[in-house]
Amino acid sequence: MTTTANATSPVGAVRTRVEGRAKVTGAALYAADVPYADLVHGWAVLSTIPHGRVHTVSTAAVESMPGVVGVLHHGNAPRLNPTAGWGAPDGTLQILQDDQVPHAGWPVALVLADTLEQARAGAEALVVAYDEEPFGVTFAHDHPGLRTATESPLAPPLSAEHGDVEQELVTSAVVVDQLYTTPGEHHVAIEPHAATARWADGRLELVDANQGSFLTARILADLFFLDPDSVRVRSEHVGGGFGSKALVRPQAVLAAMAATVFRRTVRVVLSRRQVFTLTGYRSPTAQRIRLGADRDGRLRAIDHQSSSQTSTVLEFVEPAGAMTRVMYGSDALRVKHKVVRLNVPSPRWMRAPGEAPGSFALESAMDELAVACGLDPIELRVRNEPTVAPGSGLPFTSRNLVACFREGAQRFGWATRDPRSGIRRDGRWLMGTGMAAGSYPGDTSFATATATAEPDGGFTVRVAAADIGQGARTALTQIAAQALEVGTDRVRLLIADSDFGPAILAGHSWGTASWGLAVTRAATSLRKTIADLPSIPATGISVKVDTAKEVEAMGHPERHAYAAQFAEVAVDVSTGEVRVRRLLGTFAIGRVVNPLTVSSQLIGGMTWGLSMALHEAGVMDPAFGTQVNADLAGYHIATHADVPPIEVSWVDDEDLHNPTGIKGAGEIGIVGTAAAIANAVWHATGVRHRALPITPDRVLGRGIS
Question: Domains in the chain, start-ordered, CATH in brackets?
């Protein structure tokens, strides 16, 4: 059988989303939409105290309420494997296992009922008595409980050191020594976390809102002491994740527990307030940056000391120093992380974990250094371009950050900028511009893909990828079509089913590069297999490829995407309001599969960076140990009126360490954006803001020079 290539290459072409029509017409079914005949609903009951023990759970009255099927709690819930997790035991999965309450909002019961309304009514009526114990929820850079963070196989190295930092600082002509802080931040994806679980033909089956169906299934199997092949997880459509739906979250555990106990199909949907508590967030950080340089701006020392908080059930460290390990050359470098355990929910991955808050600190400090040296901020960065990665000493597979600077500066009109602060006005508004750089790893991980030639002339490709809004379906369809040398209309892509075989989750900008490599290998092999066949049999012909060994052979080089972020802001001298008038980002992200979806990813990341700079902050109440603003009324995010036109572009960035050439665009858009805005606020007002968000009260409180 022969295949014919399109005149236009599928990869690199602008394509609208494959599933776009299904989504806008409501045909796409999310985890809480799939219909089942015997469905019951579960509503989680969360602790109202921040630390202590459950004394009693009074179930009798609730179990007699209309429609209530039962109540799960630590006294009757199935026992779980305490060592289950990805790479290490995950204490956030140990739900309803004992009477311990590690933080406010910890699950203490699940009420099951015939309808969602009945389940919620039962949950609200359930009386839980507690024995309270002392607690602490307040993070500070000088908290006495801070200790050196433990290295984790699921995080970048948390420390790096070479040279004599202290000696270089002492002998530097110019020194910047400042503390930068970022607050707790939350994902709040538009689709609440939901899972539907049931037992069918001896298998535990879940439809779940997650970012990796294969790994979710494997962890659940381990958690429930099941054979890995006896758990199937599907997550065909996911309404956003940003890290909050990476791997297993409480809704899946609770639904699987209830399905196991009651042998019914159980659906658990977390409320918006429960999402704030149970699905992770970005930890607040306090980062001391010390930079030492010669008068000409050449860096002699970089010292990045970062602190963050974690919970008492799982140590998760926000790796804010990760970007510092690769950004700038210096005679001496030190990166360290500390963490304190508090009675708070567990922080987890959130878009560009580490790099997002870390870039605010590092790139703000670099801006301060540029001012102190009398240098243009871009020139300072160019003068300190490293020849190898400072933290590891390894060469870069490619590094086109300077090209991003040049391209972005030309598009933004940077050359006409007056470096003096506080001199431009537009009526009541002070005007300023700022820039910052960013970096994020472009790693590749394992994946399996199966490509099938169908007798009707079409092709079906299966891979356990996840599309959480980033356009994976569309990009992988294009990649498959390219490898098969056919049009995209002849490719049917099936994703997000753990039965399709091993595949990494959607996160860490792994997705397209990892799944795309497996799809390329399977589709290419299939094309060669069928090339001389006169026809395809009725059963089809399939080729399955696992790239685990190929990826392992790639190793872990210094492969990164880069960003140059530019911002123009206006600051109201009367109200302190900051308005972003322009945002422009130029990126080096390897091969671009679909300019339309990549642009959307980059613009989305930059929008989030704007929101991070000016709006977002989770606030804890030290008296009650709860989050004050765990809803979308109190947790402020950028809306349409806050976001100006955003321009994105990318430079040529050939990097074939991964044969697909793809580095990923999901994370890099947010990196550096908040710093560019903060630097622009300094340029407008002459006042440096080292704490996010830059709210009107802070602007007025710091004054305007």
Answer: 20-30+444-554 (3.30.365.10), 39-134+188-278 (3.30.365.10), 147-185+281-442+557-702 (3.30.365.10)
